[in-house]
């Protein structure tokens, strides 16, 4: 007789342990589901990002192709204009003499500038030069 209450107590204890274990496993299952959902959302975001990046890549490729075509057209136009200029120089003596004439010293100086490695160097060079006189003011040369 004593065995029956001990057996019942052991079964109650075992059921309590199984219920606690079941609750812990249910909690772990819920956490795993949440993690799965979060990972699925991340995968979806990455797929969308990949789609956007692929579209941008195709657009850039198309833009690059258009730029290459424009560059080719510009080169052809430049070559055509250069040929036309050369023809006009050879045809007209007066034009050839004008083209061979050197620029005045002041104009030549405007074309001289050092090589720049950055925009900041160019700005320093611009601000370091002599300022042009104000056209409204009289100069000492008058």
How many helical stretches? Answer: 4
Strand content of the residues, in percent? under 5%
> What is the H/E string?
HHHH
Termini separation: 135 Å
Mean pLDDT across residues: 86
Biggest β-sheet, characterized?
none
Radius of gyration: 42 Å
Can you tell me the residue ranges where pLDDT is under 50 for at least 5 consecutive residues?
A: none
Q: Helical amount among residues, as a percent range?
A: over 70%
Q: Name the structural class.
A: mainly alpha
Shape: elongated
Number of strands: 0
Condensed summary:
By secondary structure, the chain is an all-alpha fold.
Describe the structure.
- This protein has 142 residues and is mostly helical.
- The protein has a domain at 37-74.
- The protein has 4 helices and no strands.
How are the SSEs ordered, and which strands pair?
Elements: H1 3-91, H2 93-100, H3 105-110, H4 119-128
Helix pairs in contact: 1-2
Which features would summarize this protein structure in a list?
single chain; 142 residues; mainly alpha; 4 helices
